[in-house]
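User: I'm writing a tutorial on reading structure tokens. Could you give me a worked example: one chain, its sequence, then its tokens, then a sentence or two explaining what the tokens reveal?
Assistant: Sure. Here is the example chain.
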Amino acid sequence: MTSTPDPAATPATPTASAWNLPNALTVLRILMIPLFLWLLMRDQGESDAHRWWAAVVFGVASLTDWLDGDLARRRQLVTTFGKVADPIADKALMGSALIGLSLLGSLPWWVTVVILVRELGITGLRFWVIRRGVIAASKGGKLKTMLQAIGLLLLILPLTGILHLLGLWVMYAAVVVTVVTGVDYIVQALRLRRSTADR
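And here are its predicted structure tokens:
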């Protein structure tokens, strides 16, 4: 989810220490995942109170994802650790929400499978080109992240009727954007590998 400045390849800042606030927020996001899952799955997801608390934890964790990227860019604290740990934290948070909701029957499994396959594939692509640069987050990628976060949050909350249906339709829209942006990332990765190989 973390976006980077517009050059397609942005190297890590050589003087940035791995011990900084953006990376601390990334680690915090990872540590919040077990708590989120415990709250979500408590009493087989039947406890409204725990679902509300799970939504709060998920919302705060999602906020740290935006905040760590913004701080890293503004304070020039982009590090190799951050480039590796941040996407892992993002995918772990979203993946835990997707799988948890599908286990509870709140989200169709096909949605979870499509999104996870795309996310894991793109994470692999990022690691494939990480020594050559960072693939910049596109507007479509940001839209995908926003739709996923909103849709998952609506489904985590103990909502019924039209509000629950709204969460499902937001997730269906997220699937479409997820697939389209996945193809775009593949094209970017191939171009980046090709351009650096020609140097």
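What the tokens reveal: The chain has one domain: 21-197. Confidence is low (pLDDT under 50) at residues 1-14.
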